[in-house]
Design goal:
Layout lengths: L11 E4 L6 E3 L7 H12 L3 H21 L7 H5 L5 H22 L7 H20 L6 H24 L11 H18 L3 H11 L3 H27 L3 H10 L3 H14 L2 H27 L2
Antiparallel strand pairs: 1-2
Helix pairs in contact: 1-10, 2-4, 2-9, 2-11, 4-9, 4-10, 4-11, 5-7, 5-9, 6-12, 7-8, 8-12
């Protein structure tokens, strides 16, 4: 689920039986379109691809519409059942960007907290830049472990305060915290597709109403995911199988986002916060598990 740079644009045309090792073509390669057709012929008759891949992308899109995100981090581990982890990351990147386009129709500029975005977006650019520069040297397992511990601590503390009926006072915009949260999110979303927790924690602390909460989240990740398309587009140029997998799964996005938006309209402010913090716990627990498992000998 954690990955490193491959040789960019290197043609790939075969895999071993467990789909975890990508094998280079031994000789002259087919044109890119023909390799996409080969990928389609491999995925199309595979019920596991449609069941796991379709359900995963639908859940991520649904969470985008309902909560502004929260489920994107499951994309790589789940899709790794049907394609290698690096390929899974390449599939997720363009699809979450497509989800943002549909979500923006319901959460336009009137639902964005402009003061928060003014401090979050500079941090996002810093984080994405650091993620790109350090992609080959940073250990994503350590990053995942850190984000997991912080996320679990924050969400569990929120539930503790709710259980004890502690009155939560909305906090004002904090420039330093906003830049740090934006940078942490940009860095972790580039390294491990796990950028949701830092922004979620910052916006919950702010005490925004549910529409501003989801709208600001949407605006932030729309820009971040669009910028990520540049390096991931380079990677996809060498992975026609990942490109065709993304195209095959894309049709589930519109309906899933729409259903998520419908749920958002029905949920109360407290309901949104309960589910968001529950997703934070689930995502943090998943990150903790995979990070510790990867770090163990």
């Amino acid at each position: 689920m954690f990955f490193r740079h491959p040789r960019l644009l290197r043609p790939l045309c075969a895999r071993n039986q467990d789909r975890t090792t990508v094998l280079p073509c031994p000789g002259p390669t087919l044109p890119y379109l023909n390799l996409m057709i080969e990928g389609f012929e491999r995925f199309a008759p595979d019920p596991t691809f449609w069941l796991i891949g379709g359900a995963t992308i639908a859940l991520i899109a649904f969470s985008k519409g309902a909560f502004g995100g929260g489920a994107a981090s499951i994309g790589v581990p789940m899709l790794s059942f049907v394609i290698d982890p690096l390929g899974a990351a390449m599939v997720v990147a363009p699809l979450v960007s497509a989800m943002d386009m549909f979500t923006l129709r319901a959460f336009g500029p009137s639902s964005w907290s402009k003061p928060d975005l003014r401090v979050l977006l500079p941090g996002l650019l810093i984080g994405l830049g650091l993620g790109w520069l350090m992609f080959e040297t940073i250990d994503p397992r350590t990053i995942g472990l850190t984000i997991a511990v912080v996320s679990l601590s924050f969400a569990l503390h929120w539930f503790w305060k709710r259980f004890h009926r502690v009155v939560v006072i909305p906090r004002p915009v904090h420039a330093a915290l906003g830049v740090i949260a934006g940078a942490a999110s940009g860095f972790t979303t580039f390294i491990a597709h796990a950028g949701g927790p830092p922004i979620t924690m910052y916006l919950i602390r702010r005490g925004l109403d549910k529409r501003l909460f989801v709208g600001t989240n949407t605006a932030f990740f729309t820009l971040g995911n669009l910028l990520k398309l540049i390096p991931y587009g380079i990677l996809l140029a060498g992975r026609p199988d990942a490109m065709v997998a993304a195209l095959m799964l894309a049709p589930v996005i519109p309906l899933s986002v729409m259903l998520g938006i419908k749920l958002h309209q029905r949920l109360s402010q407290d309901g949104i916060l309960i589910i968001t913090n529950a997703l934070l716990i689930l995502g943090g627990a998943r990150l903790l598990f995979v990070s510790v498992k990867a770090l163990l000998p």
